[in-house]
Amino acid sequence: xxxxxxxxxxxxxxxxxxxxxxxxxxxxxxxxxxxxxxxxxxxxxxxxxxxxxxxxxxxxxxxxxxxxxxxxxxxxxxxxxxxxxxxxxxxxxxxxxxxxxxxxxxxxxxxxxxxxxxxxxxxxxxxxxxxxxxxxxxxxxxxxxxxxxxxxxxxxxxxxxxxxxxxxxxxxxxxxxxxxxxxxxxxxxxxxxxxxx
Length: 197
Fold this sequence. Notes:
The longest helix has 13 residues, at 22-34. Strands 2-1-3-4-7-8 form a 6-stranded parallel sheet, with helices on both faces. It has a two-stranded antiparallel sheet with strand order 5-6. The relative contact order is 0.19. Helices cover 34% and strands 19% of the residues. The two termini are 19 Å apart. The protein is of the alpha/beta class.
């Protein structure tokens, strides 16, 4: 089944990140310049996973699932997968978290954003439970997914990402880092997969 071109694009940032992240801004700029007809949204995600997804679903309630797509980085990649499975849309994932409840459990407590150290929030213990409830054992219709995975990721295990998205399209980088500092080199492939109008 051929996937429809993308008319609406949602970008979901990672843990301790924001819409001001370099990857989010680079993607936004490329979409605005090359695909001005595409509807773009990059919300600031709530600290609570349940709240973050409720807010996001509310924001895109009138979007057409068949022609929308999601880009998600790290924890945003986990959310993007959860949403794509729920809505049946495409998703491009950048070093996506697979088991964030396990990974974030040691970080319960007060946190500060990378891009703005004046912004603080508390990672509550029940947020870990919310993440655990959202975890997926597998993805359906792997053709809807494209993942950029860096073997040099210092935060997440690339093998776990590769295994989880084994049947999907994967660009496996021999080195790299969690932030995908060389994202500019992969942006065209991400946009190509999304097939923006």
